[in-house]
């Protein structure tokens, strides 16, 4: 039996489809019935009978922050893919991010130790990797610098510490640090927001850039690592380093839209994050651009995936084809 936490998210839902489609016995948690509809939608991108595959999953209603209700998830389980996480870059969400990402991960690690899990794969993020030095490519060995990190990155890094703690107590683990994951189905968050933004024909693009990876590459890397003898290692998963302008130039034409041509200046970013702070603290609005995130947009971050290529003889797929597929599914949505 394989347990997938966060099975109703982008990575988790695609992982569930891959595992079920390959004859694996799988269990996953969910929090609401509405969240399971997203999984059904994702399955529908790849099969005409999503309900049949959904019914093959052992669904258990459970919250990773409620350790008292997690035991039913672990009974009879051999492997754990811990995908569940909260994503937010709003500093006001730090406590709930810490509760979900750090304490929730500690719960998963503790129960994995309790039930003698054979191996755990933790889905972290490049946000938990230390910054580049003198514009060199970022690797798994970059030194962590909390002062330059956003609240999401801080909690993902601290969650990694819980996973490393588990490894010291005898739990076999691997950690992946994917870049921005390109995959269909979640159009209002993560990479999906780029497709939504491009579809509106906006004139401006944000500066900077980061590493991108296809959802298929993430799933293949995870499952190959879990089936290998590799343990106590972390791996950056980035197929291609691009600016945000380059990404939108790939997406917009596939949607029949003219790509944005004007870059948001650093001066505009400085003004906006300050106004955003006022909106949040005076009017109670959610933050759209924190200071840490704004500063991170000043430069393009370049990531090195040499380690995963070497350790697994791993070959990344075609990012452009993945973008085309996402655009096709975006256009087809109701």
UniProtKB/TrEMBL annotation:
InterPro entries in the record: Epimerase_deHydtase, NAD(P)-bd_dom_sf, NAD(P)-dependent_oxidoreduct
Record protein name field: NAD-dependent epimerase/dehydratase family protein
Domain NAD-dependent epimerase/dehydratase: 2-228
Pfam families to which the protein is assigned, alphabetical: Epimerase
């Amino acid at each position: 039996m394989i347990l997938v936490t966060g099975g109703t998210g982008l990575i988790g839902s695609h992982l569930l489809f891959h595992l079920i489609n390959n004859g694996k016995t799988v269990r996953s948690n969910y929090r609401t019935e509405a969240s399971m509809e997203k999984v059904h939608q994702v399955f529908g991108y790849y099969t005409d009978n999503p309900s049949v595959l959904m019914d093959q999953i052992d669904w258990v209603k459970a919250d990773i922050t409620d350790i008292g209700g997690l035991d039913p998830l672990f009974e009879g389980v051999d492997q754990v893919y811990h995908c569940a996480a909260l994503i937010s870059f709003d500093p006001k969400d730090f406590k709930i991010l810490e509760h979900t990402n750090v304490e929730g991960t500690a719960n998963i690690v503790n129960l994995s130790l309790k039930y003698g899990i054979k191996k755990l794969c933790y889905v972290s993020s490049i946000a938990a990797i230390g910054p580049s030095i003198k514009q060199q490519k970022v690797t798994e060995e970059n030194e962590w610098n909390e002062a330059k990190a956003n609240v999401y990155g801080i909690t993902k890094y601290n969650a990694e510490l819980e996973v490393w703690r588990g490894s010291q107590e005898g739990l076999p683990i691997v950690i992946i640090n994917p870049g921005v994951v390109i995959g269909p189905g979640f159009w209002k968050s993560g990479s999906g927001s780029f497709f939504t933004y491009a579809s509106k024909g906006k004139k401006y693009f944000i500066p900077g850039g980061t590493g991108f990876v296809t959802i298929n590459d993430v799933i293949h890397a995870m499952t190959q690592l879990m089936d290998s003898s590799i343990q106590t290692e972390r791996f950056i998963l980035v197929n291609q380093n691009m600016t945000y302008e380059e990404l939108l130039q790939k997406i917009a034409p596939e949607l029949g839209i003219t790509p944005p041509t004007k870059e948001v200046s650093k001066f505009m970013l400085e003004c906006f994050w300050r106004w955003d702070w006022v909106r949040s603290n005076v009017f109670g609005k959610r933050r759209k651009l924190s200071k840490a995130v704004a500063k991170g947009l000043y430069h393009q971050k370049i990531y090195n995936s040499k380690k995963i290529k070497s350790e697994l003889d791993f070959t990344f797929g075609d990012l452009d084809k993945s973008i085309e597929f996402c655009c096709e599914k975006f256009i087809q949505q109701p």
